[in-house]
Specification:
Structural class: alpha/beta
CATH architecture of the largest domain: 3-Layer(aba) Sandwich
Largest sheet: 9 strands, mixed
Strand content: 15-25%
Bound molecules: adenosine-5'-diphosphate, 6-O-phosphono-alpha-D-glucopyranose
CATH superfamily of the largest domain: Glycogen Phosphorylase B
Number of strands: 17
Family: Belongs to the glycosyltransferase 20 family.
Strand order of the largest sheet: 5-4-1-6-7-8-11-10-9
Radius of gyration: 22 Å
Number of helices: 16
Helix content: 40-55%
Number of domains: 2
Shape: globular
CATH class of the largest domain: Alpha Beta
Protein name: Trehalose-6-phosphate synthase
Distance between the termini: 39 Å
Pfam family, one: Glyco_transf_20
C-alpha cells in the first residue's frame, strides 16, 4: 500500500462517476463547495484523498490525478441510505443549518453512520505514512478524528467543518450529541468558517464533556484541542484566467445576446437545496413583477439549480415546488419568446459558469443559512470589469468578508425586494467601488491562503496541556 504524508478524508472524492450517453464511464468534478476548494490545492501537492466515488457496491481502483492519489471507499445501498442520505443529510445537514427544514431523528441510521465513519478512518490510517498529517472534512465524518487517533496515535489530525456549527440549543437536540462532539474533538485542530462556531463548541465541550479552557484552546482529558475560524475560499487565479479566455468571453457575449442585449439580468447559481433560499427569491421576484416594479420586457432572471441529493424526500419535494413556481411565474408573466425566468436544472462546467457570471447585472445569492457560499466569491473573481452588483444573504459565511455586497435578510421578502431594486438601480460609481473592494479582498484571501493558514496552525498544534 502506497502511503502519503498528507491524507485528506472527505465523504466525496473530487470527481463524480458519470454514465456517459454511450454507457461508458466519465469523470467530472463534483459540484459543491468542498470538492472545488480542496481540488484546487491538492492538484499540485503529493497527497492521498480518501473518499466515496459516488456509486454503490465495490469501489473501483482509480487513476491518480497529477500528484493526487485517490483511495475510494465503497458504500452499499443500505449504507448510502442510512449514512449519506440519512444521518448526514437528513439529520445533521438540516440541524446544522438552523433547522430551516425539520431534522429527522431515525434511530436506525446511527449504527450505519458509525460503521461508515470507521471504514473511512481505517482507510485513512492505512494510507498515512508515519507522522503524516490527516485532514478530515465535514459533517459526514465527524467521528473519524477520534477513530484515527485510536488507530494511529502518531499522526497529526485536522478536522474542518464546511457547514455552520449550530447554536448549543440546537446541537443539544441531537440524540448522539456526546459521541459526535467527542469524535470531532479527537482532532488536534478543529477549524470552522466563523469564530462563533468555535465559541459554540467550547461551550458544549464544557457542558457535555466536562472540558475546560477557552474558545480557541479546549482542555479535554489530558489533551489540548485547538479550534479557530478559517473562512474557506476559491481559486481566484483559476477563475480569473478562465474568465479571460476568448471562448468564455465570446460565450458570455452570446449569452447576453440570447437573453436580450438591452435587458438587465438577475442571476442565481445554487445546488438545488432548501438552505439556498430559492423559494423566497422566486417569491420576491414574482411580486416585483406583479406589482409592476420590474418589467419582463427589460429584466430577466436566470436560476441555475444543479440537481443534488435527489433521493432524499425533502430535496425531491423542493424541486417539485420550485418547478411549479417557475412554471406559474412564466405562465402568468412571460411573453412569447420572453420568459420571466430561465430555469436550468443541470450541471455546468467551470467555463460555462465563468461565462454565466459575466452576464449578470445582479448576482443574487440569498441562502437562509450557508457555511460560506463559494458562488458569491466565484462571481466576484469572474468579473472582468468594475461593474455588476452582488446581493448577498447576511446568513452566508461570505457576508462577514464581502462587506461591499448588498447585504440582505432573505427571510424578509419585502426587504429582499427592496434590496433587489436598490441593486438594479445602483449608481455605476458605487458599483465600481464595491466590486474593487470585494475583488481586493478575495485576491488576498484565496484558497491557497486558506490552506496555508489551516495547515500552518495544524503543524503548530499539539501544545502541552498545562
Ligand atoms: P455548497 O457547497 O452548499 O454547494 P457553495 O456555493 O459553497 O455551496 O459551492 C457550490 C459550488 O458548486 C461552487 O463551486 C459552484 O461553482 C458549484 N456549482 C454550482 N452550480 C453548479 C452547476 N450547475 N454545475 C456545476 N457546478 C456548480
Ligand atoms: C456542501 C457540503 C459538502 C458536499 C457538498 C455537495 O458543500 O459541505 O460536504 O460535498 O455540499 O453535496 P453532496 O451531498 O453532493 O456531496
Amino acid at each position: 500500500m502506497r502511503q502519503s504524508s498528507l491524507v485528506v478524508v472527505a465523504n466525496r472524492l473530487p470527481l463524480d462517476d458519470n454514465a456517459a450517453p454511450d454507457g461508458a464511464c466519465e469523470w467530472r468534478r463534483s459540484p459543491g463547495g468542498l470538492a472545488g476548494a480542496l481540488h484546487a490545492i491538492l492538484e499540485q501537492t503529493p497527497a492521498t484523498w480518501v473518499g466515496w466515488g459516488g456509486g454503490v457496491g465495490p469501489a473501483r481502483d482509480l487513476p491518480d490525478i497529477g500528484t493526487l492519489r485517490l483511495r475510494p471507499v465503497s458504500l452499499s445501498e443500505d449504507e448510502l441510505a442510512g449514512y449519506y442520505e440519512g444521518f448526514a443529510n437528513s439529520t445533521l445537514w438540516p440541524l446544522y443549518h438552523d433547522a430551516v427544514e425539520q431534522p429527522v431523528f431515525d434511530r436506525g441510521w446511527w449504527e450505519t453512520y458509525r460503521t461508515v465513519n470507521r471504514r473511512f478512518a481505517e482507510a485513512a490510517a492505512e494510507v498515512a505514512e508515519p507522522g503524516a498529517t490527516v485532514w478530515v472534512q465535514d459533517y459526514h465524518l465527524q467521528l473519524v478524528p477520534q477513530m484515527i487517533r485510536e488507530l494511529r496515535p502518531d499522526v497529526r489530525i485536522g478536522f474542518f467543518l464546511h457547514v455552520p456549527f449550530p447554536p448549543p440549543e440546537l446541537f443539544m437536540q441531537l440524540p448522539r450529541r456526546i459521541e459526535l462532539l467527542r469524535g470531532m474533538l479527537g482532532a488536534d485542530l478543529v477549524g470552522f468558517q466563523r469564530p462563533q462556531a468555535a465559541h459554540n463548541v467550547a461551550q458544549l465541550a464544557q457542558k457535555l464533556l466536562g472540558a475546560r479552557g477557552a474558545d480557541e484552546r479546549i482542555l479535554l482529558d489530558d489533551r489540548v484541542v485547538l479550534t479557530g475560524a478559517f473562512p474557506v475560499s476559491i481559486d481566484v487565479a483559476e477563475m480569473r484566467s478562465l474568465s479571460a479566455r476568448p471562448y468564455v468571453v465570446n460565450q458570455a457575449r452570446q449569452l447576453r445576446h440570447d437573453l436580450g442585449a438591452h435587458k438587465r439580468v438577475l442571476l442565481s447559481v445554487d445546488r438545488l437545496d432548501y438552505t439556498k433560499g430559492i423559494e423566497h427569491r422566486l417569491t420576491a421576484y414574482s411580486e416585483l413583477i406583479r406589482d409592476g416594479r420590474v418589467k419582463v420586457r427589460d429584466t430577466v432572471m436566470v436560476q441555475v439549480a444543479v440537481p443534488s441529493r435527489e433521493r432524499v424526500e425533502s430535496y425531491r419535494g423542493l424541486r417539485d415546488r420550485i418547478e411549479r413556481e417557475v412554471g406559474r411565474i412564466n405562465g402568468e408573466y412571460g411573453r412569447v419568446g420572453e420568459p420571466a425566468i430561465h430555469y436550468l436544472n443541470q450541471p455546468f462546467d467551470r467555463a460555462d459558469l465563468a461565462a454565466l457570471y459575466q452576464t449578470a447585472d445582479v448576482m443574487v445569492v440569498t441562502p437562509l443559512r450557508d457555511g460560506m457560499n463559494l458562488v458569491a466569491k466565484e462571481f466576484v473573481a469572474a468579473r472582468r470589469e468594475d461593474n455588476g452588483a452582488l446581493v448577498l444573504s447576511e446568513f452566508a459565511g461570505a457576508a462577514a468578508e464581502l462587506e461591499d455586497a448588498f447585504l440582505v435578510n432573505p427571510h424578509d421578502v419585502d426587504g429582499l425586494k427592496e434590496t433587489l431594486l436598490h441593486a438594479l438601480a445602483a449608481d455605476p460609481d458605487d458599483l465600481a467601488t464595491r466590486m474593487k473592494g470585494m475583488r481586493d479582498y478575495i485576491t488576498s484571501n484565496d484558497i491557497h491562503a486558506w490552506a496555508r493558514a489551516y495547515l500552518t496552525a495544524l503543524h503548530e498544534s499539539r501544545v502541552p496541556a498545562v
